Amino acid sequence: MVEELAKLLTSVAALVGAIAWPVTIFSIVYMFRAELRSALNKVPTLLERLKKASLPGLSLELDRVADAEAESGADKSGNITPRQMEAATRIAVQTREVDPRSLLRELDRLCLEYDSLRRSLPSGETRTRAMTRIIVKMRSLAPSLLEFLDTYKGSGSAGSRLAAIAMMQMVPSAADLDWLRDRFSTEHPFVFYHAALALQNVANICDTPEKKKHLREVVQQALAILKAFAGPPDQGTIEVLTMLLSGLPEK
Predict the structure, then answer these.
(1) Do 149 and 183 have their domain in common?
(2) Based on the structure, what is the number of domains in the chain?
């Protein structure tokens, strides 16, 4: 009898223990529900920080490409180089699974830097070199952000419009010829010089008579706008457009 009672007490104790742990855990959760809710609410923030921190070397990579172009002198003409194409491809591959907002933040920073340079530096070689350095960096990001092209085209910031041109330079199939033509009426020389380079790249992919005819018309209109300026026209841009026009069929 005593032995059976002992076994009964042991069974009851085990049952109580089995029930007590969930009850205890529930009680703890209930008592600290506010703190737990706050911690859970912070999870998206922590994830967002991780996303933001997923490109810690992006600025350094862009600086590396710009430095290399400056040291080699390849940036003087403003043309796209194999090094810039390779950098853009590498960044596109490495950031394929990354939130594009990380890249957009970097591109927007470059746009603001460009606008600031235009305001703070006098016109001249120093400013041109600094601006060229910025568009070299923009090109490295451009293919990865092509889906945002219309946003940058419609911006009131000259730096953002330059970013749109960088996208069209790198992906000429996305170029808006009429929008590029309008740059020669509304922008300053650095921007419409790069608009001319974008048109030059479009010529490389024109594969129908209709496209070549449209491009020729746009180039002719751009040249007419430049030559109608009251002051001295931008000779570098005129040379790019004149050479481009000579390579396009008249019919």
Answers:
(1) no
(2) 2
Residues 6 or more apart whose Cβ sits within 8 Å of residue 87: 61, 62, 65, 140
Which pLDDT tens digits describe the chain residue by residue (251 residues)?
444 444 443 443 443 443 343 333 334 333 444 443 443 344 344 334 333 434 668 888 899 999 999 888 876 778 899 999 999 999 999 888 888 888 999 999 999 999 999 999 998 999 999 999 999 999 999 999 999 999 999 999 999 999 999 999 999 999 999 999 999 999 999 999 999 999 999 999 998 999 999 999 999 999 999 988 877 778 899 999 999 999 888 86
CA 151, 154, 157, 158: dihedral to nearest 10 degrees? 110
**171 CB neighbour count, 10 Å cutoff:** 17
- Domain limit, last residue, from 157, 186, 202: 157
Question: Residue 184 in 3-state DSSP?
Answer: helix
| Other residues' Cβ atoms within 10 Å of the Cβ of residue 135 | 27
SS3 100: helix
- Judge if 132 and 193 occupy the same domain: no
| Residue whose C-alpha is closest to residue 99's, from 155, 50, 46, 160 | 50
